[in-house]
Amino acid sequence: MRTVLSQWIGCQRVVYNGKVSEEKVFASQRRLLLASGEIDVKTPLDRCYSQFKDDALTPWLSEVPSQILRNGADRWMDAKQRQLKKLGRAPRIRNRSNFNSVLISSELFRFIDDVDAEGVVTKRLQLGTEKNPVGFLDFNAHRDYGLPKQITVRRTGRHWWLSFSYEHAAPEGFVPRDDSELAYELNALDDIDLKAATVGIDRNVKDNCVATSDGRFFALSPTQRERLKRKELGANRLQKRMARQVKGSKNRAKTRNRLASKHEYRSNVARDFSHQTSHSLVTDQANDARAPLMLVLEALKIANMVRRPKAKQDPTTGKWVKNRAAQKAGLNKAILQSCWGNIATQIKYKGHRNSALVLSVPAAYSSQECSSCGHIHPDNRHERQFVCQRCGHEAHADTNAGKVIAARGIKAVRDQTVVAKSVKRTAYKKRKPKIDLGQELSGVPVNARVSHGEAQAISMQQQSKQEYLVARSDAPTTAPKGV
User: What are the tens digits of pLDDT across the range 323-364?
Assistant: First the structure.
């Protein structure tokens, strides 16, 4: 079974990479045609994969079902559509580290429940067709599920994972509402009820990864911290061992799998911690009587916070000076291991599912501001203790920061500055080629990056440019503004 699934993964990756390479060839052809003055430039944008099957070059592609190859082309098409909608980057060449899964459609699998003599039910997945079965795969179902139309089998190190999505009805009485509607309802509450229904969340990198305004703290257990240290030491030892082994040998493959399992444990712990923490914050297990109606987070730019420091050069001697890159690397590692981004993402969709408003407020001076009187001063905080220099308010520093964040969220609701977010969650802005109105058709740069959607727009712009030049042949040299 492992050999067959590995073969399916490799063949599907070959088709995906083949479509990526094919698209690069088509893009080069489009640039050449546009440079030569062609107006109607059309290149294929399809899901064809038969051109990659060759008995002489790729005979092993014929050994897998055709549905596996078709799904590889489908995965490329999905990535390409996301690029055209400006939701992601262009598809790129993948390897075993970032494309180690296979998409299987409903023609090649079916779920079976085996019941033994004692009445124990075993969930099994049968792969292959009825005429050519591949085998059975046992899995643990965490909850009741419906029948999916496609599944994904993924390999990480020495473990295999089965994942799928299925349609299910929304909970009874659930009405999806946007942020503006939730903020309008919260604004109708009085100050006492709104404060009781709001939870401020402060995230840090030291002992407590997450602290709330009501005095709760969430962090990894001592056992998990000890195991992570041992896994890190073991990963360093295996990394040195693998560097001395021969590439392509079986011993190196065993070492690589053991190394992958060490890194996998860290990612599993981080995923488990983020899910449990976000679930506890949204449902408020400490107060079963009432779940929070608003959760307020700091608007942290994590991508900017984990960037490497720029190299510094002495202006007089020209030598490179110390820029504290090693210390910054340790801070970056601590930030990434604290799961700030995962916790925020999961709180947002879980809060929306529970009809709770999730806001992000500016984080400036939240650790130095007093939650009682609002005084801001660096001397207010001493490590984990907060003592206000004006009013003498004492509290845990992270709890005080959580209260300050909650107060800023309440102020945003009272000021009615909460607006509904757009449906598009992510975007990738690609710089379009610049075309001057006074430029000849043949002057379009050959190296201009033109996609399928941009080729038609550029050809229309060039055609309108020609009409403009003909109509304005007797116009003065200086064109009016707005033309």
Answer: 888 888 988 888 888 889 999 999 999 998 888 999 999 989
What pLDDT, in 10s, does the model give residues 186-233?
999 999 999 999 999 999 887 668 999 988 999 989 999 999 999 999
DSSP string, 139-208: ---SS--PPPSEEEEEEETTEEEEEE----PPPTT-----HHHHHHHHHTS-HHHHHHTEEEEEE-SSS-
Report the distance separating Cα 336 and Cα 269, nearest Å.
Answer: 13
Which of 393, 414, 435 delimits the end of a domain?
414
Token pair 């029948």 is found at 147
Asked if residue 228 and residue 153 are part of one domain, the reply reads no
Is residue 225 domain-shared with residue 134, that is, in the same domain? no
The angle formed by the CA atoms of residues 242, 248 and 254, to the nearest 5 degrees, is 50
What are the Cα distances from residue 202, in Å, to 219, 229, 305? 12, 25, 16
In terms of residue numbers, what domain contains 73? 1-174
Number of domains in the chain: 2
Q: What was the pLDDT predicted at 166?
A: 85
- Please give the average per-residue pLDDT across 11-23, as a whole number: 94
Residue with tokens 């305004």: 213
* Same domain (yes/no): 193, 299: yes
In whole angstroms, what is the distance from residue 242 CA to residue 248 CA? 11
Task: Tally Cβ neighbours within 10 Å of residue 408.
Answer: 19
What are the two backbone dihedrals, phi and then psi, of residue 137, each rounded to the nearest 5 degrees? -130, 115
* Contact (CB, 8 A) for 391 and 376: no
Contact (CB, 8 A) for 324 and 153: no
The CA distances from residue 228 to 61, 148, 225, 262, 267, in Å, are 41, 36, 5, 9, 10
List, in sequence order, every residue forming a beta bridge with 138; answer none if it has no partner. 124
pLDDT tens sequence across 240-280? 999 999 998 999 989 998 998 899 899 899 999 999 999 99
- Where do the DSSP E strands lie in 300-429? 312-313, 320-321, 357-361, 381-382, 385-387, 394-396
Instruction: List, as one string, the DSSP characters of 21-35.
Output: HHHHHHHHHHHHHHH
Entry pTM:
0.74
Going edge to edge, which strands form the sheet with 121-128? 109-115, 121-128, 133-138
Determine the longest span between alpha carbons in the chain, in angstroms: 95
79: which residues sit within 8 A by CB, 6+ positions away?
Answer: 88, 90, 91
Burial of 227 (0-12, 13-18, 19+ CB in 10 A): middle
Residues 168 and 221 in one domain: no
Buried b (16+ CB within 10 A) or exposed e, 341-358: bbbbebbbebbbeebbbb
Final residue in a domain of this structure, among 112, 141, 174:
174
| Other beta carbons less than 10 A from residue 255's beta carbon | 18
Question: Are 281 and 382 within one domain?
Answer: yes
170 and 183: one domain?
no
